[in-house]
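A protein record pairs a chain with a discrete description of its three-dimensional fold. The following entry can be read in just this way.
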Amino acid sequence: MAKISVLGAGSWGTALSLLLYNNGHQVTLWSALEQEVNMLQEKREHVSKLPGVILPGDIKITTDLEGSLKEPDVVVLAVPSPFTRSTAKQMAPFVRDKQKIVNVAKGVEENSLMTLSEIIEEEIPNGDVCVLSGPSHAEEVGKGLPTTCVISSRTRETAEYLQGIFMSSVFRVYTTPDLLGVELGGALKNVIALAAGTADGLGYGDNTKAALITRGIAEIARLGVKMGAKAETFYGLSGIGDLIVTCASVHSRNRKAGYLIGQGRTMKEAMEEVKMVVEGVYSAKAAKGLAEKYDVEMPIITEVNKVLFEGKEASEAVKDLMLRDKKVETPMLPWE
């Protein structure tokens, strides 16, 4: 049995708390929001974000950050990506040397263009920072539906230790050394999911969705490889796997926000209606910034930014994508 603290009591943090508890670990769930903690303590259920998933009384729920970091073998950082840096700053004075910190949020910081693990390592240089990612909606993990993820760390030893912590009969975990690729796949797929949802909102069909998924992963992989990640990662769980589920699922807040935009809502109106952090909106500008920094062509990412931040009509964005110059799909393959 390990002692584990989950920081962030949204839908994903709540679901992972239950998963880890069911795996036999001693779990503490922390939130900075006193109202949220009071609700979870009283109801043992996140009524608004994860209804129907009941937390056992043995899971401690608290606002005490220092106390949450004193003893755990593993700290799971599950706050939304826009709050990763501020939470890491708060954590820093209390983190023990080489304490394992597993980031489960997905995003890239807009101004610095840093991945979340880079942010955590900058703010907590003495921590052992790892990443858990993959196609894993909290609504399904909370209900114990079969799910598969991937965990990455700087060392094989840490990755395999954490694999054992998270793995169960309903939650299968693989390992990989490509931490950068895992993070980029998880962050940038949210932007493509906004495009997929927008296409749904416009009334387009399965052909359009398939095109966005396949060309979207091609864009993400092009950028990732240019940045030093491995191409194979983007065709695995944290790449194409996460992209498929986020583009297609009714649980996807990014797809839902895109759908509302396709229906004519503004970006702000869509985010307000979703009522949860739409991480693709925060990652869109960062993705465009990375494309420019590394001189990588990312037409879907570019058009999503124009729709979100420049007032471009979504239907015009789709038209411009379709009418781009002729391309070869597999330029690495020679003709006979």
Remarks:
- The first helix runs from residue 11 to 22.
- The mean pLDDT is 95.
